[in-house]
């Protein structure tokens, strides 16, 4: 990271207040999203094993499709925050509307792909004949809600850029409650089965999108920003998001390779891997909340031309990332014996998972640095570098991971490779922030 003199205590406290004010609500909103799937799983699970299996396949496809477009939130946050820092709220909201229009167009395109190809996609997963009809039904209905899901991503980015993470938290909580109530009512009350669960989620997602649009449109009218689609603005949003799409796809490839290698090691290994991956994802939410704060804060400082403030905020957020990583790692070590029985009573899975969990615990401070610096560079609009760096990380990780079964390594070796992956990410991000090339001031990069 670019060297900066130690900030005075009052300045550090100011940064701390900003980080907490943005990160804590962001964390709440992040964990609310997985609760949607948990509610669906709990309700559909009582319909039968085939229905639950169908939900599992369909939800995996939907989650992958939506996560690919997470750049709608990241790129919009950075672009809006820069304009907020420059003092031009009208342009900030106009930029946000361009992102929302792009999300709507992409959502329509995804529907056009999913509806006719749903049976083929389900078959590609090797779904059983009994579960496949339920998977296709859930996938086709839920696909209708993808435009709303993507609008929610883009609108969340708008509000984060405006330094507002509380509204996304409130909307996420309301959406979760509505989703659970609608699912229960439609699945059992209306006796619609798995189709009722899908319709409940679609209605909840459109309700969340409507709530976000109400807030954004109200802000647009207050500041005189146009709501009409602007072709040039939409193209600019797509161009800014393209490198982040490459980054996301590379990261998804890393996770897929790790899972594929674990699957080749045996049933107990893949079972242990899934448990550990679920914990790793949960820990990532806590660290990602700091990264989201970093996107908003860094974008605002650079938009205002305050390079010193950006450096000091970056330094302080790295300290936060390390501290939170140490705490999370300690909790993993302390709770290892209690965590595994929540998922399985198989002693073979426990024996495989325990040393791998230790590897996850030791890597958390590294993860803390990675998430924070990733957020800082996103906030700076340094997407092209993030894309190149993540492709490099994938190129290092893939051969190492794929050699594990050949060399006789086990699941601990897989998670050692994951730690190597995070370490290489940390080095690439640290070198970039240290160089200072990410520091580009102004309302646009």
Automatic annotation (TrEMBL):
The keyword DNA-binding belongs to this UniProt entry's keyword annotation: no
Keywords in alphabetical order: Cell membrane, Membrane, Transmembrane, Transmembrane helix, Transport
Transmembrane region(s): 19-37, 57-80, 100-121, 141-162, 169-190, 196-217, 244-263, 275-299, 320-340, 352-373, 385-407, 413-431
GO cellular component, one term: plasma membrane
Principal subcellular localization: membrane
Subcellular location per the Swiss-Prot or TrEMBL entry: Cell membrane
InterPro entries in the record: DinF-like (IPR044644), MATE_fam (IPR002528), MdtK-like (IPR048279)
Membrane listed as a keyword: yes
Membrane topology note: Multi-pass membrane protein
GO MF terms, alphabetically ordered: antiporter activity; xenobiotic transmembrane transporter activity
Entry's family note: Belongs to the multi antimicrobial extrusion (MATE) (TC 2.A.66.1) family.
Name the record gives this protein: MATE family efflux transporter
